[in-house]
């Protein structure tokens, strides 16, 4: 079994930024947290270190150490190609046993905060209110994370995000009209351009969403 964090490591974890989970400490100390799967090193400059969801749980006192649960994903890589975390697109089997409740909400929150930090570090102007290049190459995951982070429910009674033939656009389908409006508001608040369309042949309506470019006026 992996040993629980040392006193020094706990001090670093407890001093992490409460919103983004960004860590400060010596390179050796931070590398030790990475080995314990309590932190990860951001792949882009300035290569800052952040708590993983497991690290967040240790910080909040709900886990005694990394051995208490399978390692969680890095926040900034939440929608990342690692596959450790995936925002709900609404097409997954329901229910997802053991994936509901406060732990899921905490992981989604960490993922979203990490994505906002990725925006800040990779958008040329440091904007957090506009999608970054990574989101433009992972449209379905990025849109799903924005919706889930905003509290929109996925699945048969909620949203379903899917690809479209159009470049840089995803389709969001929701059974109830009020749910469609809620998803549109959530995506717009997350920096996406949204328009409403009717299925062909005429039937249910859906959203076409794409990452916004440039600053709002």
Which keywords apply here?
7 helices; single chain; three-stranded antiparallel beta sheet; alpha+beta; elongated; 217 residues
Order of helices and strands: HEHEEHHHHEEHEE
SS element count, helices: 7
Q: Mean pLDDT across all residues, rounded?
A: 81
The secondary-structure class comes to alpha+beta
Radius of gyration: 18 Å
**Cross-sheet strand order for the largest sheet:** 4-5-7-6
The outline comes out as elongated
Region (Disordered): 1-24, 44-106, 195-217
Write the layout of secondary structure elements.
Elements: H1 7-14, E1 22-23, H2 27-35, E2 39-41, E3 49-51, H3 53-59, H4 102-122, H5 133-137, H6 139-149, E4 159-163, E5 170-174, H7 177-189, E6 192-198, E7 205-211
Antiparallel strand pairs: 1-3, 2-3, 4-5, 5-7, 6-7
Helix pairs in contact: 4-6
């Amino acid at each position: 079994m992996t040993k629980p964090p040392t006193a020094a490591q706990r001090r670093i974890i407890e001093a992490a930024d409460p919103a983004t989970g960004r860590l400060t400490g010596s390179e050796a100390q931070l590398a030790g947290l990475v080995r314990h799967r309590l932190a990860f090193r951001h792949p882009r400059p300035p290569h800052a270190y952040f708590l993983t969801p497991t690290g967040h749980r240790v910080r909040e006192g709900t886990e005694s150490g990394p051995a208490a649960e399978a390692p969680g994903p890095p926040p900034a890589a939440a929608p990342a190609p690692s596959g450790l975390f995936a925002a709900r697109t609404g097409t997954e089997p329901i229910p997802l046993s053991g994936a509901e409740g406060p732990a899921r909400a905490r992981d989604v929150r960490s993922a979203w905060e990490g994505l906002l930090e990725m925006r800040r570090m990779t958008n040329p102007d440091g904007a957090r209110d506009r999608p970054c290049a990574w989101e433009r190459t992972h449209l379905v995951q990025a849109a799903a994370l924005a919706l889930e982070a905003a509290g929109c429910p996925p699945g048969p009674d909620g949203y379903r995000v899917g690809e479209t033939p159009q470049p840089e656009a995803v389709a969001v389908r929701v059974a109830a009209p009020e749910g469609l409006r809620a998803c549109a508001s959530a995506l717009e608040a997350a920096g996406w351009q949204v328009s409403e369309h009717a299925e062909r042949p005429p039937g249910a309506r859906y959203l076409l969403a794409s990452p916004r470019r440039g600053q709002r006026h």
